[in-house]
Amino acid sequence: MIVLTGVTGKLGSLVAGQLLQQGADVSISVRDPQQVRDWEVRVRRGDYADPASLGAAFEGADQIFLVSSNSSGLHAQQHHRNAIEAARKAGARRLVYTSHMGAGADSLFPPMRDHAGSEAFLRGGDYISLRNGFYADSAVQMMGRAWETGKLVAPEDGPVSWTAHADLAHAAVLALTGGTDWQGASPALTGTEALTMADLAALAAGLSGRSIERVVISDEEYRASLLGRGLPKERADLMVGLFAASRRGEFAAIDPTLERLLGRRPVTMREVLEEALRS
Ligand SMILES: NC(=O)c1ccc[n+]([C@@H]2O[C@H](COP(=O)([O-])OP(=O)(O)OC[C@H]3O[C@@H](n4cnc5c(N)ncnc54)[C@H](OP(=O)(O)O)[C@@H]3O)[C@@H](O)[C@H]2O)c1
User: What number is the average pLDDT over the span 63-86?
Assistant: First the structure.
């Protein structure tokens, strides 16, 4: 049996949908079981912040799909540690964890340091750490209201090999069902092109027929604008760190593994922006 976490989120719901369609033996661990009513499988409450809940939620698991927490900082690492310890206590044979292509203890983007810490907890057991590319959806969010304002305002950045949730979900399903020979960290699972904010502005302008200017501001101006919009300091620092990390090339690598695994070209940023324009 595969116990799935994160199914109320974007990646986990896609993974759950595909596995259920394949008739896989799955059960679900979620913070709020009321949110999962449509699937006829075992649903138990499992909160990474509440280790006692995870024992029952992971009971009987052969594998656990552990979607990384969307908390930041030490919370995230503690959440993952709780889940990994509970998985081991429950006797799970293998953990499949959603990490990131940029995972690294010296990353300038704090969540990448969390992933590195979580991967350290995973070592010593059987696990696959999915080194997911940067979500293409994050690019759309970072573009903000550029479509309406005609300006894409952000600090200096570097190229990012943006990757679609759907493709990463497909890779996760293959990892969980014996479709890969990965042990430990997977290769970086990325799209086939690395684009900067200027590239995104040009692409969006071409698709929408409106002009979109890329306006570079300093990290300090960006931080101040985020704080001015009410973001907590930790969140503002995190976003500034993201740009610093992308300038350093932490998300620039393009790896052919995902394309090979899918047997087709991964979803492109153009397709993601077309979809965003339609919605
Ligand atoms: N590769 C990337 O570029 C990238 C970008 C952003 C984030 N991420 C990471 O990838 C993860 C999955 O992405 P996503 O788009 O599916 O995120 P998402 O839609 O925000 O989903 C996050 C999921 O994690 C669950 N969760 C959060 N805290 C939890 C806790 N304490 N105990 C149990 N479950 C908890 C949420 O459950 P609830 O419904 O109960 O909140 C939700 O199901 C994120 O959580 C984040 O760690 C990756």
Answer: 91
Would you give the distance in Å from CA 70 to the centre of its chain? 9
pTM higher than the cut 0.70: yes
CATH class for the domain made up of 2-132+165-189+256-263? alpha beta
72 CB within 6 A, ligand 1: no
Element (H, E) at 36: none
Of 44, 67, 129, the residue with max ligand 1 atoms within 8 A of its CB, to mutate for a pocket test, comes to: 67
Residue 78 beta carbon below 6 angstroms from any ligand 1 atom: no
Q: Where are the domains of the chain?
A: 2-132+165-189+256-263
Q: Which residues contact 71 (CB under 8 A, 6 or more apart)?
A: 79
- Any atom of ligand 1 within 6 Å of the Cβ of 44: no
pLDDT of residue 72: 67
25 is written with which tokens?
A: 């033996």
